[in-house]
Amino acid sequence: MLAGCFVQLAGVCGFVTYLTLAILNEQGLIIEGPGFYLTCVWCFMTWKWGFLMLYFSRSYKRLYLSEGRYSTQIDDK
User: Fold this and answer.
1) What's the rounded Cα separation, in Å, for the pair 2 and 42?
2) Under a CB-based contact definition with an 8 Å cutoff, are residues 62 and 16 in contact?
3) Coil, helix or strand for 60?
4) What is the mean pLDDT of residues 13-22?
5) What Rg, from alpha-carbon coordinates, does the chain have?
């Protein structure tokens, strides 16, 4: 879960940084070549994958812990 938080933080920081650079440099939307807006898209994708990693790791942890309690209840009987 901690990795998901760090990946989200890196994605948000990169997104804000490159969006600010694109606006300050008055860069237009270019399809090919070096562009800050394209990097913004990749930073957003990084944030998205970090969010999904955090979400699914939390749900997996919850499922793992609930199955662990269920199996110990069966073993106790």
Assistant:
1) 21
2) no
3) helix
4) 94
5) 20
Alpha-carbon distance of 22 to 15, in angstroms, equals 11
> For the chain, what's the residue count?
77
Model confidence pLDDT, tens digit, residues 38-68: 899 999 999 999 999 999 998 888 888 888 7
DSSP for 9-29, please give it.
HHHHHHHHHHHHHHHHTT---
Place of tokens 């490159």: 18
Q: Residue 19: which of 45, 34, 41, 50 has the closest Cα? A: 41
Number of Cβ within a 10 Å radius of residue 64: 9
Residue 22's nearest CA partner among 8, 39, 4, 36 is: 36
- Give me the helices (H) in 1-77, please: 2-24, 36-76
Cβ(2)–Cβ(50) below 8 Å: no
